[in-house]
Amino acid sequence: MTQRAQLDTDGPDPGGRPPAIDAGAELDPVHPVPPPEAAPDRARGLTTAEVAERVARGEINDVPVRSSRSLGEIVRGNVFTRFNAIIGVLWFIMLFVAPIQDSLFGFVIIANTGIGIIQEWRAKKTLDSLAVIGEAKPTVRRDGIAAEVSTSEIVLGDLIEIGPGDKIVVDGQVVEADGLEIDESLLTGEADPVLKKPGDEVMSGSFVVAGGGAFTATKVGREAYAAQLAEEASRFTLVHSELRSGISTILKYVTWLMIPTSIGLVISQLVVKDDDLKQSIAYTVGGIVPMIPEGLVLLTSVAFAIGVIRLGRKQCLVQELPAIEGLARVDTVCLDKTGTLTEGGMDVTDLRLLNGADETYVRKVLGALGESDPRPNASLKAIIDAYPDSEDWRCTESLPFSSARKYSGASFSEGDGENSTWLLGAPDVLLPADDPALADIEELNKQGLRVLLLARSEASELDDPRVAEGAKATALVVLEQRLRPDAADTLRYFEEQDVAAKVISGDNAVSVGAVAGKLQLPGAENTVDARTLPKDQAEMAQVLDENAVFGRVTPQQKRDMVGALQSKGHTVAMTGDGVNDVLALKDADIGVSMGSGSEATRAVAQIVLLNNSFATLPSVVAEGRRVIGNITRVATLFLVKTVYSVLLALLVVCTQVEYLFLPRHLTLLSTLTIGVPAFFLALAPNKERAKPHFVKRVMRYAIPGGVIAGTATFVTYVLARSHYSGAGAREAETSAATLCLFLVAIWVLAIIARPYTWWRLLLIAAMGFGFMLVMVVPWLQDFFQLKLAGTTMPWAAVAIAAAAAAGIEFAFRWVDKKFPA
């Protein structure tokens, strides 16, 4: 009789899982054995009636899934901003003192804010729907039947079954334990698993790394520990983002610069100049509004939101928006072989007997071992498929597989009075280094085959740390892994994009190297056994930089390897699907989990590939590069405007002249040279890997560009003031300055739009055509109060703009050489 038959105390389990172990006998003296009549009820879980009572009392796990902000938060976040407040006040003033065309900037802000709300709302719906798809469903035993339920359907007192990789979703007390090891590192920071026995407490947020069992829910909903943490920092809370923090830094300095400049401008226009009050206010507002790069913040949010939507359509769940930015900066991706380069399924291809073992007997052992584990891994599933269970064998003790041990085991009563203990795991762990069988295993590993050793242990207790010592090798089980059909193309993509791929696996190093070799990964021929890696971080980083394939890597080593790569300045993405990947996923800059992976990996990963396709990764990386590369590109447009606006205001204050522009003029210029082009450029393809130092990269262009543009515009304005006189002079002066500033700004746009494509050239031409229409169509001339007078000054404006454009071209190239980023 197998273990499953032995444990069948309550009849067959319709849920397909092994019936409950009688936990009472395992309780220690601190936790007394419950009365006999209570044990069956606890082992069977709650009844349907008890569940209904608890639901009626509100004792349910009612914590909402927070994958994104609520609609109210989205609206408030987009509407109630510092710069919307400033512009809102200015807009309110302009509505009373000037024609509607001078208040256009307010309508633009309303439109932009509306776009931001709509895009983020669309992203929220995508996130919420994908979060439901990717949500793991714990197994709950009710009325003796094990079934998967939604996390929100768990009630107080539910009996929840757990196994390797399962996350503890609510707080509880262990009822059943079979070698149950819990990793509480996400809660305590301690990496070592904790052995749990019946009566021990488990906390939500931890996860199972080995063994199995069941626990009773003692705290659900907002009382659970993980829920309390979630209330303090919901999933939508943005982690560090260089792009967002850089923009915040720029805006902070702009605000401080804007305050004294605005005060000086107000005094200049209202006190020093004896103009009409309403006209002075209009020109003052015209000088303040363009200093604010409000569109940059909005465009960043829109680009992130669109990125989330695009990835969502490819069944990729983005759990933290800055993950998109992180992906753009990735230069090293660490891949776990199993489940990433290979498919989950395996096949037994050969059974090689050792030391004169009998094949029939070995087959019985393998069948019994497969049946002894209620939650078999991929290797054991292949063995179960190949070798049926022997009905006359009874499992008396089992040791679940652990990635730290590299083996599993079980003790059996063989039906004829004979007892035996068997181990199944990594040959190079169970065998001494000089064993002759290792030579054959090496050859098999070189072919990309996975080899497990079946060994008989002389120890009487499986939990004895020396159980593997002196174990007698009995047979080699040869398994073949199925390569993912898209793995080779994906690795080739990373190579082309200058992203280093590192295969990091717990399997035999030679076997891992063979798999990587089949996929034509550069460096696969020089596979490193992680047991030989240096402990020193700097030395380990050196080895990691020089090699690409690593085998026999422990979970802690995976974490150390990620840290070593980061210490060398690398931005690291880590992929994985098993519990042994969790620590490394958590520490990596970007953690990528397969949708079919353990719940623990999905919980800590920023990116979840719901379709389990490794081939999705290039799309994910490309989306990150597109978003960040384009935002960095268009940020220059916004900040050039900020710089020249501040400079013009300062020049006006110092020279005590009327301000150059009305708000309508700058609304027109901003729309044609920044707003519309930036929206299209931000959505364009961009494969360039994002580089660090966002503020430095943007400001090194914005400052010289803005200074040259502002200087050229003011020179044109001063010349126009000396050239024109009489009625219509003010309008002619403004028109000449507007023409010059437009030509300089469109040249900045032309530089930013490089390299040219047909649609980028069409975009620049369309913006130029739009400005030309305003200058030649009579009703548009009247609406924007722009009309060029004569030919001398307009052509002078064109000449000054051409000189300024040449100056900007030279300055940008000089900056590239002098201050490379």
Automatic annotation (TrEMBL):
Residues 138-232 form the P-type ATPase A domain. The keyword NADP does not apply. Keywords: Membrane, Translocase, Transmembrane, Transmembrane helix. It is found in: Cell membrane. NCBIfam families: ATPase_P-type. Residues 18-27 have a biased composition (Low complexity). This is Cation-translocating P-type ATPase. Its main location: membrane. The chain crosses the membrane at residues 79-98, 104-121, 253-272, 292-311, 634-653, 665-686, 698-720, 732-752, 759-780, 792-812. Residues 1-45 are annotated as: Disordered. It is a multi-pass membrane protein. The lineage of its organism: Bacteria, Bacillati, Actinomycetota, Actinomycetes, Kitasatosporales.
